[in-house]
Fold 2OG-Fe(II) oxygenase.
Amino acid sequence: MIETPPTPYVHYHDGGIPGRRPILKGASAKPTFTSVPKIDMQRVYSPSLSDRQALAAEVGAACRDVGFFYAVNHGVDEDLLDGTFDAVKRYFALEKDVKMECHNQKTEKFRGYEGFLEGKLDPGTRGDLKEGFLMGEDFTDPEQNLTPLPHLPNTSKPRNQWPSHPSAAFFRPAIYAYYNAMLSFSRRLLQIFALALDLPEDYFDAITTHPMTNVRAVHYPPQTSPSDVGIGAHTDFCWFTLVCQSRTSFPALEVLNANGIWIPVHHEPHTFIVNIADFLKLVTGGRWASTVHRVRNYPGDSKEEGKGEERYSMPFFFSPNEDAKVSVLPHLREEGKTYEEFVVGEYFQKRLEVDRTTHLKKGEGRRRVY
Ligand SMILES: O=C(O)CCC(=O)C(=O)O
Ligand SMILES: [Fe+2]
């Protein structure tokens, strides 16, 4: 009898829930992407609606077929991006005590500093080999120019934590310059997303007056073991994410295609990597892809040990107002089906809890915000 070899699978975790996908090769391979498309975003600023529509058609195809694309010519100042990376590198090089003053365990929304191996997206690993700093929407930080909203919980209290030590004084203004630039670009991108979904450009404006947003600055030291992971395979659970990554000579960020093959996302200077996340997949009735991705800062077997490079990245996560109610867009619904409505903030909390429970059950690792 001829024994059939076991199907090889690639494993990942989606919001703490384990998933696996067969690795398909040869005749069994499906049509899927083998690279991440590059889209010239300059038309986002064009006064001509037809230019913006043409851009939206490209963006829509990438969101459907890949869930990831490079945004080139996005208009965010390159010196600002370089300056933020410099500040992020300086921040992670600070004394441990200065970073621990803002440990994320001290806040409800896990804002602040996260230490090495404290995050654990893939329970099959010893933890994420990274340290990070998370900030986000905060109605009390004057840099955000927001007025506390009495009908929302805790908008008159700080949500962020900032280091108070003088050696870290450079960090907050640098992060805020980046945050505000990314927020402005995200609002434009959201209008392109609306066009790509055959909606009026301003369709999402009313639910994004005080959006849920985060910047996470991340430092991935070089891995010495291939079984480690910088961030375990996952999907993001906001609407969409923009990532700026520092240069490494080998691709550290990888995206999983439908055949279970990891597709590298090479460093492209000053570009953003845009990815659709779970909530936008949900709102589009699954038409857009929230694609599994991971980071492995491992130089590969071909390199001598110790030759790895430090990697830094600065994901910006975007979602609508925490009190917005959303569901599958009306024109994308199937007849006869009923659709649940979600409060954006509650959806987040639910996802957070799934993650937290999964990790705590294992008795190791901590929760993840996205
Ligand atoms: O560091 C990166 O390139 C991506 C990080 C990421 O996937 C995340 O924080 O959700
Ligand atoms: Fe991610």
Summary: The CA atoms of residues 349 and 369 lie 9 Å apart. The domain at 38-355 is CATH 2.60.120.330 (Jelly Rolls).
